[in-house]
Structures are given as structure tokens and as C-alpha cells.
């Protein structure tokens, strides 16, 4: 009997009698699962379904691309840019846009500010690890950024909308 176990970068093959393979597989999981559970507690994960629920009435996706549904005067420049990057991420994950990375020019256009202000704000988002600059000079939201937006920014924006 041969059994192959593969999870992410870990791959193990067990061969032998049914009893030997069974014992080896059980030993493997006994050693692997505790470290997996510990690592999983420290790993940042994005639950797309929860994220979409959290973004309801804040971002929207159309055939033309992602949009912000919050009045621009209710948001800071950093909130606007972070939400635009988040909207591109969600749109990409839902197969509504072609990429989760956005050019500085497109962000500048949607922000409605000059190039210097847009560059400065994007630099702040990169420095705080909310966003990252890609190899082709575009910007995208980081996993850390998504988690921070869900925990801190979205509740603050929802409170602003209600006010």
C-alpha cells in the first residue's frame, strides 16, 4: 500500500503493509498537527466571505471596476486609497477585475488629488505595511493591511457614515 500526503509545501509518501502505512500516517499527523495548529494561530488569513460582508455599502464592483460608495468628504486620503486597494483585491478575488494591483495614476484619479499628495499617502500606506509596491510600480493591499482595515478602519468608516 502507498499513500501520499500533500499539504502546501509538505509532501510525504508512505509505503508498506496496511498496518505499517497506517502507523506511519498516524505518527506523521501526530507530529505535524500540533505545529500546524500553532502556526495556524499565528497566520494572517482573509475570510473573503466575511470581508465582503464587512465591505457592504462601502465598496461596490461594477463592470467598469471597483467603486467606493462612501462620500469622498467623509474619508481621509489614506482611507480612500486603502479602500480603493481593498476594492481591487475583492474584485480580483471575485473575478470581477483583472488584477489586484492598481497604478498610481489610477489611484490619483480616483483620489482626486495631485501626484505629490497621492505619492506621499501611498508611501505612508507602504511604510505602515497596509499596501505594497509591486515590481511593475503598481500598488496592492497586503494581507496585514486587509486585517487592519477590517479591525480598525471599516468600523471607523461605518461610524462616520451613520453620523
Helix content: 55-70%
Identify the CATH homologous superfamily of the largest domain.
Winged helix-like DNA-binding domain superfamily/Winged helix DNA-binding domain
Q: What does the overall shape look like?
A: elongated
Major sheet size, sense and barrel closure = 3 strands, antiparallel
Structural category is alpha+beta
If strands are numbered along the chain, what order do they take across the biggest sheet?
A: 5-7-6
* Overall CATH class of the largest domain: Mainly Alpha
Task: Give the CATH architecture of the largest domain.
Answer: Orthogonal Bundle
Question: In angstroms, what is the radius of gyration?
Answer: 21 Å
User: In total, how many domains does the architecture comprise?
Assistant: 2
Would you tell me which CATH topology of the largest domain applies?
Arc Repressor Mutant, subunit A
Low-confidence stretches: none
pLDDT averaged over residues = 90
Brief rundown of the structure:
The protein has 163 residues and is an alpha+beta fold. The chain has helices at residues 18-42, 48-54, 77-93, 104-111, 115-127, 143-162; strands at residues 2-7, 10-15, 59-62, 65-68, 102-103, 131-133, 138-141. The chain folds into two domains: 2-42; 48-162, Winged helix-like DNA-binding domain superfamily/Winged helix DNA-binding domain (Arc Repressor Mutant, subunit A, Orthogonal Bundle), CATH 1.10.10.10.
